Amino acid sequence: MPTIAYHELTDYLNRATAADWPAVTLVCGEEMLCKKAFDGVLDRLLPEAERTMALERFDGGEDNLAGVLSSLNTYALLASNKVVVLHDARLFYSAKAQQTLREKMTQAARSGEIKKASRPFLNLLALCGLTFDDLKTATARRKVADDEDGEAAPWLGQLIDYCRESSLRIPDKKDDADLLKTAMQKGFPDGHRLVITTDFVDRRKALFKAIDETGLVVDCAVPKGETRADRMAQDQVMQTAIAEALHPAGKRMAGDARQRLIQWTGFDLRTLSGNLEKLISFIGDRQTITDADVTAVLQRTRKDPIFEFTSAIADKDLSASLFYLHSLLEEGMHPLQLMAAAANQIRRLLLARDFIDRDQGRTWNGNMSFPQFKGAAFKAVQADDTAFAALIDGWAATLNPPAEGKKRKTTATSDLVLAKNPKSPFPVFQTLKKASRFSLPALKAAMVELSATDRRMKSTGQNPRTLLEAFLLRFCR
Question: Positive or negative, the Cα torsion across 132, 138, 139, 142?
Fold first, then answer.
């Protein structure tokens, strides 16, 4: 069966019947969306009145698959249908899951949600083949969490203590995927169905392909990146979540209130849901939630990505630059990281401004639209990148000639290119538009000043925040 995206599930549930439902259903992706999708699937498969006798739940981190399969092949008492649920399965994990688990663990732990952080933490340890005691060494710790100022992150000890005090164990490092795949091929008793939920799937795994082919996959994944497409997808999901919360309560939300709610919350559906409950309760009998209600009830909890900081710098937006600087520093980001991010952004603007000056209006002008840019102008940028790469390669060949009779090793590609992804011209278009606001001498001077700021930060003992603020005040004026 084809994979069903989360936003398509309601229509699918309206069309499908329990009798025709496949034997295995996989619900995967964003936690809150998975929960809503799972509830919808369970409502379709098993009426509330039958669940006492015909529903059995298992925990993917605690229970073994043999018990799940045994339950699937055992007939329910006084019921012809049966649903077995495997929550938070690890069957689809691979090395690719490590970064996702690290991010979920770190975000929850830094927010003080140690219990929520424990599940990805334990799964990450299992994937890495580590124990709690292994984390006493910096080498092992780096596989799980970044050290802060040469020491273990302050929340890591709390996390380990919580797991030990709660008798939570690290899951066995074994792969039961083949066992389930074989059981699926043999089949389950009529009317018996398995529903699996998980936060991460490696779509290359044979088990995933088998479920995708003969069962049903409900894809609740939402891109977490900072590209324009990713942010639009996140915004669409949040707007849907807001509508789903407001409709049953008979409430509306003003446009500026929606915008502030999303800005203050960020892409965190659990927090968004809680904030909406507070707002609905706060306004009482009133029908419309206003911006004043949002500012009166809520606090800003969004964790600002460094992208917001660098984007504000490129926009010469002093207020936003200072705001994100302070916010990121409060979140624990090191001042040198922020300075490096600012330097990378200005280097990119410098590269774009250099292209604009050399192009002299032949293909680019600041008033062109994006559809116009995708033609000759973008091809000119790509040609310029290619010429620059050849120049770098020529320099490398001169400085490091190969030994007689041997071929020279290929050098790493320089990061000084505008079109890093030939299939994504929009970021290049945006960079050129922003670079048009600066002169080449101004950008060169900014790089010199950043270098001086770096030296002062490392050698004078001056407050790093003050040094960065001073740089932003001069650059964005």
Answer: positive
Q: Two tokens at 390?
A: 């050849």
User: Which residues are CB-neighbours of 241 under 8 A, at least 6 positions away?
Assistant: 32, 269, 272, 273, 276
Mean pLDDT value of segment 382-395: 83
The DSSP bridge partners found for residue 220 are: 29
Q: By C-alpha distance, which of 89, 92, 101, 28 is closest to 60?
A: 89
Residue with tokens 């689809």: 92
Residues pairing with 194 in the sheet:
24, 84
* Secondary structure (3-state) at 197: strand
Mean pLDDT over 154-177 rounds to: 86
The helix (H) or strand (E) run that includes residue 190 is none
Structure tokens at 326: 């302070």
Q: Across-strand partners of 58?
A: 86
Beta bridge partners of 85: 57, 195
Percent of the chain with pLDDT strictly greater than 90: 40
Q: Which long-range contacts (CB under 8 A, 24 or more apart) does 298-302 make?
A: 298/261, 298/264, 299/264, 300/263, 300/264, 301/264, 301/265, 301/266, 301/268, 301/271, 302/263, 302/264, 302/265, 302/266, 302/268
pLDDT in tens, 243-300: 989 999 999 999 999 988 988 888 888 888 888 999 999 999 999 999 999 988 887 7
Task: Say how far apart CA 86 and CA 63 lie, in whole Å.
Answer: 9
Rounded to the nearest angstrom, the gap between the alpha carbon of residue 58 and the centroid of all alpha carbons in its chain is 27
Domains (range + CATH), the chain = 4-90+174-220 (3.40.50.300), 96-166 (no CATH), 228-297 (1.10.8.60), 306-393+415-476 (1.20.272.10)
> What is the arithmetic mean of pLDDT over 36-53?
91
For 209, the token pair is 């392909």
**How does DSSP classify residue 233?**
H
The whole-angstrom separation of Cα 412 and Cα 397 is: 12
Write out pLDDT tens, residues 120-133: 999 899 888 899 99
Extended strands (E) in 279-436: 288-289
Contacts of 436 (CB under 8 A, 6+ apart): 353, 356, 366
Structure tokens belonging to residue 301: 């909890």
CB-based contacts of 60: which residues, under 8 Å, 6+ apart? 86, 87, 88, 89, 90, 91, 171, 198
**49: which DSSP letter?**
G
Six-digit token string for 380: 């000119």
| Local structure of 4: helix, strand or coil | strand
Q: 218: which 2 tokens? A: 């409900």
| Helix intervals (H) in 16-96 | 31-45, 51-54, 65-72
